[in-house]
Amino acid sequence: MKGRVLVVDDDTALAEMLGIVLRGEGFEPFFCFDGAKAFDAFRETRPDLVLLDLMLPGRDGIDVAKQIRAESGVPIVMLTAKGDTIDVVLGLESGADDYVVKPFKPKELVARVRARLRPSQDPAQGALSIGDLTIDVAGHAVRRGQELINLTPLEFDLLVALARKPWQVFTRELLLDQVWGYRHAADTRLVNVHVQRLRSKIERDPENPEIVVTVRGVGYKAGASGGE
Amino acid sequence: MTDLESPSAGDRIWSGLLSSRDVATRPFRRARHGWRSSLYLRVVLTTLALSLVVLVVLAQFLLGRVTDGLLAAKERSALDEARAGLAQAQLLADAAERGGGDPVSNVALVDGIARQLANRAGNPSIYEVLLLGSPGNLISDVPEFGSNQVSAASVPVALREAVRDKQRQSSTYTEITYADDRVAVPGFAVGAPLALPEVGSYELYYLFPLSQEADTLALVKRTLAVAGIALVLLLGGIAWLVTRQVVSPVRMAARTAEQFSAGRLEERMAVVGEDDLAKLATSFNQMASSLQGQIRQLEDLSRVQRRFVSDVSHELRTPLTTVRMAADVLHDARQDFDPATSRSAELLQTQLDRFELLLADLLEISRYDAGAALLEAEPVDLVELARRSLEAAEPHAERKGSELVLEAPTTPCIAVVDGRRVSRILTNLLGNAVEHGEGRPVLLTVAADRHAVAISVRDHGVGLRPGESALVFNRFWRADPARARSTGGTGLGLAIALEDAHLHGGWLQGWGVPGDGCNFRLTLPRKSRADLEGSPLPLEPTDARTDRRVPLAAAAPVPRVR
Fold it and tell me: Which residues contact B182 (CB under 8 A, 6 or more apart)?
C-alpha cells in the first residue's frame, strides 16, 4: 500500500473516476462529497494526502484547506477548475501544497500525488544551519535557539533545499524541480506563495527577509549563515 | 523606415530652414498659446486695449474742447483790447498833429504813444506793445518801440504782410521772444496799421502771452493722462475680478471633470446660488451621476460576465475531467480491444486533447473580453525564458525536422513582465514557426535596449501573402480555408498572444513573404506598462530576400494602441 488518499469532491462521477485511477496506481482512496464533512472525514481516515476540490457545497475548499492546515502538515493537492491567478494564489495561501487544473490527465495527477508522498530523497544525517536557524534533517525539526518552529513537510523540504547549498542561487524552476518534482516548466507562483508562507514562519521580519533572500530577476538563495 | 531613401541635400537644407524659422517663431507661438489657452489673459487684455482706445479718443476730444474754450475767450478779449489801444493811439497821434508838428519830437511822439499804450497793460503787464515802422516809410531812421524789451521777431512775417496789405486788424498765434534772456512763451499777436502824420506809417502790434493758458492746458493734459492710466488699470482690475467670477467655477468644473475621468466617480461640483454657473454645476453633476450609474451598471455586467465565465469553466471542466480520465484508462488498455474499439479509444483521446485546448483558449480569450485578465509582473530574465521555451518546443521541432536556433546576448535581459504570459506567447510563436516552417531552421532572437526587450521568431516556411500579416491575429483565422484542420492549434493562439502582449503595453507584429517565411516580433517595455517608442529588433528580418520584398505598409500591421 503506497498511501491513503482522501478525495474531497462533490462530483460523484469524478470522485469515482479518481478512485479508479488511484486504486490502479496502488493508492487507497477514501471519499467525502461534502465540504462541511470534510474535516471529520479527515480526522477519521488520517490520510497521507488530501485531494481537495476548490469549489464545494457546504464549505469552500479554501476553508477546508485552512482547517486541515491548522491541525496538520499533511500534503494537500487542490483540484481546481480555475486557472485564474487569484483563485490559485488564494488556494495556495490557504495551505495547499500543489494544485492540478481540471481537466487534467490521470498521469499528471498521479505524478503530483507521488511527488508529494515521496519521502525526502537523501536523508542526510546531522544538522544544517541557515540564518540563525538550525535544521535537524533526520528529525524533521527546525529550531531558532531552543524554540521549535512548526513547518509543513513541503516548507521543510524548501528550506532544506536552500540550506544544503547556501552558496547557490536557486531559480524558481530549479526549486520546482527539486522540491515539487516538476520535470518541466510549471507555475512559478507555487514557489512565490510558498516562499512567502515559509518566510512568515521563520523570518523575524517577513517584510525584510534575512534567511530566504530574493535575488532580483533570478530567484532565491539562503541568507548569510549565523547572521543576526 | 529602413526602406526609405535617405533624404537628399535639398531636403536637408529645407528642413534646416524650417527649424530655424521654428526658433524665430517660438516666443510668438508661446504668446499665442497663452492667448488661446487663458480666458483670463484674453478678457483682461481685450478690456485694457479697448478702454485704452476709448480713453485716448475721449482725451483728445476733451483737450480740444478745453483748448478751444480757453483760447476763444482770450482771443476775443485780445482783439477788443487791441482795437481800443489802436483807437487811443490814433487819438494821441491826432492830438499831436493839432498841437503843431515838431519834427524833432517825432521820437518823443512815438515813444509817448507806445508808453501810454503799454501803461494800459498794467504792472505786471498782461500784454506787450510793439510799435514798428512799416518798411518804405518816407522817413528813414524811424523810431520804433517795444515794451519790456519785447523783440520785434515775435511778430511773424506773415502777420506783418497781412497788416500792411489789408490795412486792417489781423491776428495770429506766435511765440513771444525777448531781447533779454527771458524764455520765449507762446502768445497771441494782434496787429493793425497806424498812420502817424508827418512821421509815417506804423504798425501797432499787441502781443498777449498765453503762458497761463499753456500752464492750464498742461495741467489738464497731466490730469487726463494720470486719470486715464488709473482708469485703464482699474478697468483691467475689474475685468480680472469679473472674469474670475466666471472662470473660477469653469476651472473648478474642469478640475472636477479631470478627477472624474481619472476614475473618481463620486467627484461632484459645489452648487452655489441659482445663477448660470450654478446651472452649469447642476447639469455637470447630473451628467456625472448618470455616467456613474452607467459605469456601475457596466461594472456589474462585467462582474456577472466574469462570474459566468468562471462558472461555465467549472461546470464544463469537471465532467470533462471525468471523461478525460476515463478516456485515458481506455486508451491505456487499448491493446486488449478489437481494432475498431482500439482506434476509437485513440480518436477519443486525441480529440479530447483538442477539445481541451480549445476550451482553455476560449476561456482565456473570454477572460480578456471580460477585462478580467490580470498582469502578474515581476523581473524576469527573458534570455532564460526564451531558452526554456525553446527547450519545450524541441520535441515538436524534432518531429517536424526543424532545427531550433537561439541567438541571444550572453548577459541577462531583465524586464518586468508576467513570465507565464510571455512564455505562452513564445510557445505559441515557436509552435506556429515549427508547424509552418517546412523543416527549415527556426531562429529565436532576443535583444534589448534601455527601454525595451524584443524577441523575434523567424521561420523560412510558406510565409504569408501580402495583407495576411495583420489577419493572422484574428480569431479563428486560417491561412487557407481549404487546408485541412488537422494541423492542430485552436485558431485562437495568436489572438491570445496579441492580448497578452497588449496587456504588457507591448507589441506583437508579424511579417511574412510567400516562400520566404515569417518573422514575428514581440516587443515589451522593460518597465511594466511603460510606453514603447521603438523595438531593438527589426520587424523585417535582415536575411529577407530583398528581390521579393513587398512594400512595408502591406506587411507591417500598425501596432494597435490599447
Answer: none
Looking at this predicted complex, what is its ipTM?
A: 0.77
pLDDT, averaged across chain B: 81
Q: Is the pLDDT of residue A227 over 50?
A: no
Task: Please count the CA atoms within 13 angstroms of the CA of A25 that sit on its side-chain side.
Answer: 22
**Which of A8-12, A96-100, B551-555 has the least mean pLDDT?**
B551-555
Contacts of A104 in chain B (CB under 8 A): 321, 324
Nearest to A185 among B328, B380, B388 (CB): B388
Distances in Å between the alpha carbon of B378 and those of A108, A187, B122, B412, B433? Answer: 28, 14, 107, 15, 28
User: What was the pLDDT predicted at B246?
Assistant: 79
Residue A220, amino acid: Y
Query: A144, exposed or middle or buried, with CB in 10 Å at 0-12, 13-18, 19+?
Result: middle
Task: Record the pTM.
Answer: 0.52
Is B329–A55 a contact, with Cβ atoms under 8 angstroms apart?
no
Contact of A77 with A49, CB cutoff 8 Å:
yes
> Does pLDDT of B550 surpass 50?
no
Q: Which residue of chain A has the CA closest to B413?
A: A217
* Helix %, strand %, coil % of chain B (to 5): 60, 15, 25
Q: For chain B, positions 315-334, list CB contacts with chain A under 8 A.
A: 317-326, 328-329
CB contact under 8 A, B314 and A81: yes
B424 touches chain A (CB under 8 A): no
In three-state secondary structure terms, A138 is coil
List all residues 6 or more positions away from B278 whose beta carbon is below 8 Å from its beta carbon: B271, B272
How many angstroms from the chain centroid is the CA of residue B332? 73
